[in-house]
Fold:
Amino acid sequence: MDRVDVAILGASGYTGAELVRLLALHPGVRIAALTGDRKAGQTMASVFPHLGGLDLPDLLALDRVDYSSIGAVFCALPHGTTQEVIAALPAAVKVVDLSADFRLADVGVYAQWYGHEHKAPALQTQAVYGLAELARAQIKGARLVANPGCYPTAAQLPLIPLLAEGLILPEDIIIDAKSGASGAGRSAKEANLFCEVAEGIHAYSVANHRHAPEIEQGLSAAAGRPVVVNFTPHLMPMSRGILATIYVKTAKGATAADLRAALVRVYADEPFVRVLAPGLSPATRHVRGSNHCLINAFDDRVPGRAILCSVIDNLVKGASGQAIHNFNLMHGFPETTALTQQPLFP
Amino acid sequence: MDRVDVAILGASGYTGAELVRLLALHPGVRIAALTGDRKAGQTMASVFPHLGGLDLPDLLALDRVDYSSIGAVFCALPHGTTQEVIAALPAAVKVVDLSADFRLADVGVYAQWYGHEHKAPALQTQAVYGLAELARAQIKGARLVANPGCYPTAAQLPLIPLLAEGLILPEDIIIDAKSGASGAGRSAKEANLFCEVAEGIHAYSVANHRHAPEIEQGLSAAAGRPVVVNFTPHLMPMSRGILATIYVKTAKGATAADLRAALVRVYADEPFVRVLAPGLSPATRHVRGSNHCLINAFDDRVPGRAILCSVIDNLVKGASGQAIHNFNLMHGFPETTALTQQPLFP
Amino acid sequence: MDRVDVAILGASGYTGAELVRLLALHPGVRIAALTGDRKAGQTMASVFPHLGGLDLPDLLALDRVDYSSIGAVFCALPHGTTQEVIAALPAAVKVVDLSADFRLADVGVYAQWYGHEHKAPALQTQAVYGLAELARAQIKGARLVANPGCYPTAAQLPLIPLLAEGLILPEDIIIDAKSGASGAGRSAKEANLFCEVAEGIHAYSVANHRHAPEIEQGLSAAAGRPVVVNFTPHLMPMSRGILATIYVKTAKGATAADLRAALVRVYADEPFVRVLAPGLSPATRHVRGSNHCLINAFDDRVPGRAILCSVIDNLVKGASGQAIHNFNLMHGFPETTALTQQPLFP
Amino acid sequence: MDRVDVAILGASGYTGAELVRLLALHPGVRIAALTGDRKAGQTMASVFPHLGGLDLPDLLALDRVDYSSIGAVFCALPHGTTQEVIAALPAAVKVVDLSADFRLADVGVYAQWYGHEHKAPALQTQAVYGLAELARAQIKGARLVANPGCYPTAAQLPLIPLLAEGLILPEDIIIDAKSGASGAGRSAKEANLFCEVAEGIHAYSVANHRHAPEIEQGLSAAAGRPVVVNFTPHLMPMSRGILATIYVKTAKGATAADLRAALVRVYADEPFVRVLAPGLSPATRHVRGSNHCLINAFDDRVPGRAILCSVIDNLVKGASGQAIHNFNLMHGFPETTALTQQPLFP
Structure:
């Protein structure tokens, strides 16, 4: 297998480290450059000792990367800083962007939620939203893939097929999501200290989280009309994992069994999405470290309603794993390359 | 203060230990008897080393208790075993029952959810449901108080006043609840091992949990008509705490501010219930070890909807603390006696 | 009981909050002033929501405190900043200092470990080292008590009596200590993020921790000659608690039973120190939230050696609880006032 | 690569599941049989949902395995039950035994620690102790490999080379070890419940743990004379990982730098053992899920002493990973086959 030279921009964060962890097993990749502005000059082993056994380049400042041999870039920079960086990349370089910068097709919606005008609107029109299972064809031909957010991945995988088939109503969709602390990244904030997160749970950004418009964009397309959702994230005392518990109204008299059957059909041949046997409840610990998504549907006690549960590892299927899945699609590698690791339990 | 001799039946479980922890600071109580069938004959210090500094009677078998001096019984026995035990107690003994055995006024509903006929239906008619803030007068005159379940406490405290005032609709109430592992008790089950609970979350008993009818009983009374709710509990990697995130439809054009204002009015003088300042999100870690309940209301992005958050410590306000609150009411002690400990954070 | 007006300097950290939590139940204390420089002007409820049910003054800048009514100060400021603050306090104010600034009697040793000359050497000569059980008489007469560090408390309580009685040798004492993350304080550092602490353990400051000279000071005094110890702290994935596992050589043919018997004699009447029954292993979870210290001694397989285990809650017996114990001694309150809360388990 | 048909006996425990997780990526292995007596007849997906994406045989009762095609057995049965099982296997089947049954060369020592006579003493004489890095040649020719215990692996990897080179003294070696809860297995015991393990630490089996004689066997061989060690294990609130903090007396005037240099020499070409840069402290979280062992040496404050730290994942390098390493050696596969996964952090 010919190797693609890859640069990871923003390798000093958790998603950057996770890209390195997974790509270390990719026979078609050579990690040629790693950047980390605040930690430029340091070895990756000093920033992430768990990766100390690998032969990796040291961290560079972003503007020091030599792109002459680079075939692909994974961009794991903070939201808002990415647009100009990607706009300045050589045209031959394919990009998977893990930030939110190119996820919203409507730059007006972007400006409304992110507080500033989009800085690369032309590039936005070329960006493909990389929900891998549901946009394969477009991803294969893309130069720039906007990798979905962690919550939007967990929410859209069960909801989009059901909305598309008309089995659930687009009104009153309630997404109660629970995330591990790695979703907040590695920056040093009081709210993310061990003592502030352990032994407790609370909702945050209630009805006000930036992943809401991203979810609505996907659901609206599936439903064929504008969808507004309730999306309520919670911070959990665990490092990895997202559980989305989704409350929906069913249509056409559909039962949970019908919803489940539809999801089984859609995802039957997918290597990473698994609809559990009836009655089994998806648990985040059963996807930890893997690119898997587990889904199930349950009847509600309230007539005409159902409950969907969906779990992913936010750093893998919700970030770096899906990014590699997209990379594989863009570069013609088998889809599961570097993504065959099984979940780590316990 | 004259002391009441108290027996705790089922003291070898977490709620039993929690009763002892709290009552150790109650100037009106003498712990006269502790039972624990499987551990009869052992010292409390060997069963719960954290209580080893107290002067406590050893654990007895249930049938060895001498009730001659006992004025009050806390019954923390497993569900289903309690009815006959309490029916056999001397009539002069006042009882707070922490099990589910006397919580459902309709013994038919009990039979349906617990799988057997109620064994003390006459006693059931005398039992008062002890949601302390909302049933004070009845509790004061009661001989037998059925202490509310942990989830029902967290759910009913915000919902009952709002339903009673007609500010929310009784339809489509969705209660997404997250609980620490102590709610499952101390019995040795694979599902409750550290490795099975840590670093993960999942829903359980989806649409099928026995606390649903208990919640519906209270909400139906408040709404003045039958209410069916969605109640979905989740097991969290923490020892204590319940967060109920509740999704409701508002009535009369009420906003979250209106809901909050109503709750402020109802709970203004309550020592244990606190409505947070607008925008603040209740966190279970901020009630840990205390008898507190924190509540807030938030507007939803979906028009006509709102979100309520409510947190308690499941072992205190959701069990032993509320039981002592009820005991204080029944015996004429100041309500906060033995319940003034502040939350333990971090 | 007459109330003493108390100021807590540095109330925005964990030990400050813990002082407030405990003093809330002290009938002889009125919290008159709270300071927190970076958070001056904020309510205590916004900085520590778990204390939101109390009637507390807002946080002040340090230089805004009016000491006219203040009878006692708890000083919970960072190490190194405290000497000048305390030197500037009115002479009538009694002080318990929770920092390390007055713990080392020899200001030369202080300078060596803290990297700068001591700024109040005269005051240092008046300071009493407040290991409460072992320095009662001096503490009662002190104006300034240096509250022991968390690790030194856990290490010295078992070791000092055994050295003083000559039952163990002063050579080759090895103190392997494990601490919860709250020992690192509330400042936002990458190393203390949830994801960096959870699911792991490592040693830190190996053979180089500032608590070593503090421990050696106490042990040297007990042994009657200079003692150098191995002290190796570890960071644990828990919020509270310290376990010191101490490896010693016995003298005079003493067995673990002899060591245990000596400790039982010394601590027989102590309300906060408990020597466990033979064979029982002290666990940090059994002292959580309390001012308790549990100790035991075990024979080693290696002839002539023994193992001591000692546990405390680092924020209580290792900081704020012991500070209140010292305050009670200094002001003539019963020693256990505000310190009778039992441990919180689970 | 030709595939070896493999049977895993005792696949319903954590080490069994971990063998499956790792072997799923082994191109030379076909998992042909899985046993689990109590769970016989169940699918592996129901017992371990995280493995639900694999095509695995259902669990069999132990006596139902057809060995006709089996080339290798991994035996992960409880201690004490294994001797007769392995004695009854066909002679052509190679065995890696993860239990303690064949680890002690002296069946008299076995009897003393395990409370019964060894049931296969003849087989014991053929068993090779599979500390992979230090017994390669013997392992390659073995039919039966006794896979080392988790604690013994963490302790012996740093100690054996240093004893063999005479850089440390065999007297007064103190091994303070900290383990995650998965070391206790998956059986349902009160002591291993989430609430009993979370937020706390304690020592257990003090001076009395069965891994002590296993460690002493290896150290005695290295030292050339009988060694008795202090070995004190602690239970930690984490699922995976062992840290051994080892306190030694140096010989020949050796410093920590000398010890480190010796370890660097010994392990320079090893794929799984890494001596960290001077001053860096090995953390269990940096080996999680991997077959890695990280080691370092530190000078002690006490003259003539040093501190060694060693970390492994108890389920991988301390059990299933090392077992596969041994399997690879026995069957001529490249040593790192199926063991190249990087650690999972955070």
Observations:
- The first strand of chain A starts at residue 4 and ends at 9.
- The radius of gyration of chain A is 19 Å.
